[in-house]
Amino acid sequence: MRRWVLLAGVLATAAAQTTFQKPPAGAERSLRDRVERFYSLYQQEKFREAESLVAQESRDAFYTMPKNPVKAFRVESITWANDYRSAEVLVACESVSPLAGSGTVKIPVRGSWKQLENQWYLVVERRPPPSLPPSPVPERSQSLEGFGATQPGGPDTPNPLPAGRPLFSVEPRTISFPRDAAAVTERTVIISNRMPGPLQLVLGAMALPGLSASLSSPTVQAFGYTTLKISYDPARGRPAGQHSVGLLIQPISQPVAITVRFE
């Protein structure tokens, strides 16, 4: 699992930003083809061939990072830059993990892609691996002690997670919007479940004009993830300052606040 933490950390970027404008004709298909080609080669463990789709300045970082096997993948979303010459691509990767027993773990991986010489290339940032997956809340509220989580095999199955291991992650915890935006803009927050049982998410009421939020699913399956999309529509209101979007994570009764800034 830690290898996937490193891969996600290497490819991860800040919160996704979307404006509701269409990219130039053929741009999305061209990018998708390159992303799918890269992950197809990665899945086949043809890393030298996959390296040809990585930007030249990023190849050392790609070559030296750990490479966990990919069993399946799916392009979830594409977030375009204003000039449509770069984009953030969210890909759902499935991999085997000891924590999932005989099953697979779904890992959300964000990658930065740039158009260089009329071709799309993955840009990899070299980052040190974290000692544990990043955690949005204090460890005392994430500890498994007293929670009694068990594997799907039954109540007598040993708990596969050590005490003190984070139960979930919410990334990022702070997002920002340009207050003078001309069109609807979105940010994406990823909620990952690191437990052997499902989590239920309850989204707090939204009362701020111009701001809305929705979950792709209120249930986060064991070792899976879901996304929270927060939208700002300047035609419905132009808030100022700092606000928050609240989530309640059950059955551990853990409140989480995502800070929203208007700049």
**What is the CATH topology classification name of the largest domain?**
Immunoglobulin-like
Main sheet makeup: 5 strands, antiparallel
Order of helices and strands: HEHHHEEEEEEEEEEEEE
Shape estimate: globular
CATH superfamily of the largest domain: Immunoglobulins
Distance between the termini: 37 Å
SS summary, helix count = 4
Question: What is the CATH architecture assignment of the largest domain?
Answer: Sandwich
Number of domains: 2
For the residues shown, what is the average pLDDT? 76
CATH class of the largest domain: Mainly Beta
Question: How many strand segments?
Answer: 14
Structural class: mainly beta
Quote the beta fraction.
35-45%
Query: Which residues sit in consecutive blocks of at least 5 with pLDDT less than 50?
Result: 1-6, 8-20, 128-163
State the helical fraction.
10-25%
* Cα Rg: 19 Å
Explain what this protein looks like in three dimensions:
The protein is built from four helices and 14 strands. Residues 1-6, 8-20 and 128-163 have low confidence and may be disordered. The longest helix has 17 residues, at 27-43. The protein is globular and about 50 Å long. The protein is mainly β. Strand 2 and strand 3 (86-96) form a beta hairpin.
Secondary-structure blueprint of this entry?
Elements (H helix, E strand, L loop, with lengths): L1 H10 L4 E4 L7 H17 L3 H5 L7 H6 L7 E9 L5 E11 L7 E13 L2 E5 L44 E4 L2 E4 L7 E9 L5 E5 L7 E5 L3 E2 L4 E8 L8 E10 L3 E9 L1
